[in-house]
Amino acid sequence: MFEPEVVAPAVDFLAELAGAGGRALELGVGTGRIALPLRRRGVEVHGIELSRAMVERMRAKPGGAAIGVSIGDFAATKVAGTFSVAYLVYNTIMNLTSQDAQVECFRNAADHLEPGGCFVVEVMVPDLRRLPPGQNAVPFRVDDGRLGFDLYDVATQSMSSHHVEVVDGRGSYLAVPFRYVWPAELDLMARLAGLRLRERWDGWSREAFTGESRQHVSVWEKTGD
What we know:
Elements lengths: L3 H15 L4 E5 L7 H6 L3 E6 L2 H8 L8 E4 L11 E6 L10 H14 E12 L12 E7 L2 E8 L4 E10 L2 E10 L3 H10 L2 E7 L13 E8 L3
Parallel strand pairs: 1-2, 1-4, 2-3, 4-5
Antiparallel strand pairs: 5-11, 6-7, 7-8, 8-9, 10-11
Helix pairs in contact: 4-5
């Protein structure tokens, strides 16, 4: 996720949306993977982040001091001013583990956009087609000493990613909860927030989104109605 060939298309996409003199708001800014190169492109970037430790890591990087950060929940935290683009990348919308929280995230993003501004979300398409009847687990990593798998609960749209690692005979285990969400459901959340779908792609390089796509980059525009 940190490789230049992964980061550069996202930064190009967001810089184009922000436009000359535009401001960008990153929800879940983390360690600045996207915010820092976007700032180097001349876009003023402000971030919202719950983890102070991650913000400290960003501050230690070149240019980190130039990124304004508000500490808090990105579904609710308010920032002064308006922005030409707000964005949420790399499945981070799924870190909000209830539908209500995801709806509030859209409303919060819309509240920060200027008329005509855009909210961008990069997220996976739920991989339920890989689940045979009666199975609720999908492996995503199986190699020497490491195992990763997702558990799905289709009744609640909840899932969790499980990571098992064995190093020098000692094992570690981590489970992270998520709520998966469908593209059409995101479109409805956007409408509730006063946004309309402007474009949807398979990736940052604007590959066509199809029934076989396993992820999408979607852009909703503030209508100003």
